[in-house]
Structure to design on (249 residues):
């Protein structure tokens, strides 16, 4: 497997960044293994799902960020689970956590969002964990599109646990509006669930059309990422993408 490009800022102000999307199951598993996986991927941004939401959740999320050489950008309980971590290469313009309408009897869902800069590149970012219920999930897909548009940026990415395979109507809805990064430039492995028996892709990273996808997939075989750690860290496999974001005019 060819390595993904390293993060860098180009002379024209564009930025190559690494983005990791990861459902961490409230850090109920082996958090040392989780931190090792994240660290080995050298991400500039980490889009988390099922971040800690209850007792001392901020401290737990901060501990994971510190162990992974990152900082907490936004999200957690204030977004009903999605969160964003970043490295110090990112300049943060603004953040907003969004709670979605609650359907009685179902889990509360939300988005963690931010606008950041890397060099001369300005980027909207959204982390999501969509509903298990088909109709609600489709509605949330529409809200995701609206929320990214409301960020008011030319280039944006969204990543998360979609609870749906690529043929599903919500997945298709997103892929019609954005680049499905795995489908655009497949790298590594495809399936994200489950670590013990990978057989379906329900986690994904999407990017607006102007972002160049250099590679995207599950980092099996990536230096420093072991199958033992992937199985111990959580009940999903992560998705890692390398993207080139153009400089903002």
């Amino acid at each position: 497997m060819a390595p993904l490009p390293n993060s860098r800022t180009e002379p024209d102000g564009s930025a190559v960044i690494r983005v990791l999307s990861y459902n961490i199951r409230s850090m109920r598993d082996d958090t040392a293994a989780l931190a090792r996986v994240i660290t080995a991927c050298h991400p500039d941004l980490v889009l988390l799902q099922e971040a800690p939401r209850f007792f001392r959740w901020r401290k737990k999320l901060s501990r994971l960020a510190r162990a992974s050489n990152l900082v907490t950008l936004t999200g957690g309980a204030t977004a009903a689970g999605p969160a964003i971590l970043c490295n110090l290469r990112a300049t943060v313009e603004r953040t907003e956590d969004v709670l979605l309408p609650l359907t009685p009897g179902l889990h509360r869902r939300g988005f963690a969002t931010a606008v950041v800069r890397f060099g001369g590149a300005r980027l909207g970012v959204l982390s999501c964990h969509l509903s298990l219920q088909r109709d609600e999930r489709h509605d949330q897909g529409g809200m995701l599109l609206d929320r990214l548009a409301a960020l008011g940026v030319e280039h944006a990415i969204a990543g998360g646990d979609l609870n749906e395979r690529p043929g599903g109507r919500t997945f298709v809805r997103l892929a019609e509006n954005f680049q499905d990064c795995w489908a655009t430039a497949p790298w590594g492995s495809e399936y994200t669930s489950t670590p013990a028996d990978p057989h379906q892709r329900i986690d994904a990273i999407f990017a607006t059309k102007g972002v160049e996808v250099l590679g995207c997939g599950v980092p099996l075989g990536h230096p420093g990422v072991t199958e033992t750690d992937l199985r111990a860290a959580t009940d999903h496999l992560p998705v890692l993408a390398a993207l080139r974001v153009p400089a903002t005019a």
User: Anything to note?
Assistant: The chain has a mean pLDDT of 97. The helical segments are 31-41, 57-67, 134-150, 169-177, 181-184, 227-233. The domain at 9-245 is CATH 3.60.10.10 (Deoxyribonuclease I; Chain A).
